[in-house]
Amino acid sequence: MYNMIRGFEERFLMKKILITSLIIMLLSQLLIFSVGAENDLNQTFMKDNIGSYVFVIVNDEIVTFNDVRPIINSGWTYVPIRRFAESLGANVSWDSKENQVTVEKEGKLLVLDYNSKSIVKDGIKIEIPLLSHNNRILAPYRFIGEFFGYDVSYFSEGPIARVKDCSAVIPDAEIVETFKYEINELKKEIIENLRKNQRVVYLTFDDGPNRHTSNILDLLKKYDMKATFFLLNNNMRAFPSVVNRIANDGHAIGLHGVTHNVDLVYKTDTSVLEEMNITNSTLKSITGSGSRLIRVPYGSHPHLTRNQYNHLKNSGYKMWDWNVDSGDSRVGATSKRIANHVISSLTNEKNDIILFHDIMITVNALEEILIWMRLNNITSKPLTEDMTPYNWQKYR
User: Fold this and answer.
1) pLDDT tens string 253-301
2) Fewer CB in 10 Å around end: N or C, the chain?
């Protein structure tokens, strides 16, 4: 009888150990999954979030922003002035004629001038970067917070921008952990909304590569945009490393021909095809791959004939024109005019294939355009060979 009871106890103990081990294994897997899911969320948030959203905490509360959200740009943390200042208990007024925001609290007055990109405090003008979006002026939160006597901190783990005074209860060392769950939920919501509503346009650059192309690539990388480069044969031979960088950075490469001379490119029924084939051969020798994407010099109208197009089509090429000319190659163009024109065209939401050229004036205009795109949840993608090409002749 004793041996029977002892055997029963041993079997029960073994089952208990087995069940406990299984529970521990399951909990471990759940923990690993949870940590992995959180890491995936943060990686996705940092990679795909348009404008690098930052969460703002005033003392011990997250500040909510509706129509315009805080962003990180070029190392500065920008906040919509009115909502942020009101969260500090300040009064805000806007002078539309002067493009100035005045913030007042307890007798202290801060003036932010968008025209001169400066603030006026204690009668002294200080230049600072300012942004404008949806009739809202965005300014670095640090300037406003410190002016009104707050301590300012930034935590990359959030990312969190915090301003606090003596009424704050939560220590800085605990701020990330305290708001971890709430911020993760907000991240999921932001990612879902951004992806659902994100608009895609196509930035295209002609006549490269040259000494300006690397600067363009740097800006596209900085703002996580992809583009299509229609390259000239002799320029590719002169800048093969830039050609490889275009491909390695995930942009599309198209062909733009050899001579870029109307009299030569369109001389015969097969002359356009011959130039594209030469350019394609050069591209293959540099990158190992060719391209079926082409843009004929000066666009398909009025020079390209039906016979010339048919030769291109029968050889498998896809011909692309554009529906927004940035104006960067026009006489009298300035970087500001280019940026204003492109932004105005994008605001209409009717045009989506934008023509630029690899020239210095484009480099100077491009960053303002890319910032505006990010603020407005617009991204750029490369053209692909399976897309139906857009051209003025309606050739397909």
Assistant:
1) 999 999 999 999 999 999 999 999 999 999 999 999 999 999 999 999 9
2) N
Report yes or no on 342 lying in a domain. yes
Catalytic residue, candidates 113, 206, 328, 358: 206
Query: Residues 268, 292: one domain?
Result: yes
Q: What average pLDDT does the segment 227-231 reach? A: 98
- Its domain, for residue 92, covers 55-197
pTM of structure: 0.63
Catalytic residue chosen out of the listed positions 133, 260, 341, 357: 357
252 within a domain of the structure (yes/no): yes
Identity of the residue numbered 250 = G
Using pLDDT thresholds of 50, 70 and 90, give the confidence band for residue 156: confident
- Is 341 noted as a catalytic residue in this protein? no
Judge if 158 and 233 occupy the same domain: no
**Count of structural domains within the chain:** 2
Asked if 40 is an active-site residue, the reply is no
